[in-house]
Amino acid sequence: MPNSENHSGGLSKISNSRHYSFSVVVVLFIFSVAAVLPLLFSMMSIHLFRQRNVIMTVDRVAAKLSFEDIHNDYDFVQFSEGLKAMQKPPYIVFYDSSNLDIFLNHICNLEFIPNALSRLVAISFDTNSHMILQEKYPKIPSVVVDLDPIKESLEETYENRRYIIYQLVLLTRTRVCASLALRGINYWAMQQDSLWIENFESMNIEDRYSDQYMLFDTVGNEQLPEYKRMHGWICGSTYFVRGNPTTHQFFMQVDAFMRSHQSPDSSIMTYLCGHRNYKCHRLPRWIISSSDYFRGTRETTPVMIQVDSDQKEETKMELFQRANFIFRHDNGTCDRRAVHKLRDAVRLAFPEKLKTLGQNMYAEGLLTRLYYAYKHIFNVDRYNNKVFLTVHYTLI
Question: Transmembrane stretches, by residue range (predicted)?
Fold first, then answer.
């Protein structure tokens, strides 16, 4: 019996010890959460404040060059009338002094592609680059929508200034698109950092999809499973617009959204294209691809590729030089041989990206997979278009 009592007493002590240990753990957990929560709320508050400041600043500075200012500007009206008179939808390239060198390089790319250069027109966001282009290529229709006064109104030390200017450029492009659509002009919006590997002009893409109001390029790469969550996400570097009241309304919606949310135009266009009445169509990536193409095996070369940079310390021109995408000699003449060798250059460019072919750069944890499974079961944001709206939240 004594042994039994001792044993019973020992068990009681162990039980009490475990009870006390559990209580201590609970108390420590509560205190830890209580200590961390204010820090988390503080961090969230700071980020929300910065985000709100960015949105309000974009809205404020964009008001200095409104849709009406652009639409009714005499030079822009004359420019628009010239576009309306063109036999085929123009290729509109937007640029400024920061990427003029890339644009001049792009012109040399198009010079050796039949009928491409005759459809090229340009819209500059500063007077200096506009004057240089007119001097070098006076036959290319061009106009300036000057953003320099607005940029100069923001001090160099202004918080998130660079991002605000980036959003301002996208918003101004959106207003230009809305204006042209209102005038009933069909057009392609393009970027100066796109490569034409084949004759895109001869494909008459806009006629192939004559029942669609807008044609868009997309992000991603079919060879890589991590892009499955991004299916249908618009890249926004190259798109076609059939000018009519519906597409005008579409871009005015993008305008309003950009002035009230911290989202790029591409994610907003993706979201709005969920409405079938806008008649959006995503072009296959063998026609137009984003820079995600370079992460694949490159067995098929797209007709056109937009080249983006993920190296902050490297300029776009340095990137093009490294990849052998230079089509312009130092004396300003165009290099026919470089254009003819572009297909090989594309296949060999950025070998470091091929090393990541077997790696999942967007690996998902269990909670993330459960989250997407829940969304799929209950049909909540099935194509993750609302998720795409938040893609810029970490940039400020």
Answer: 20-41
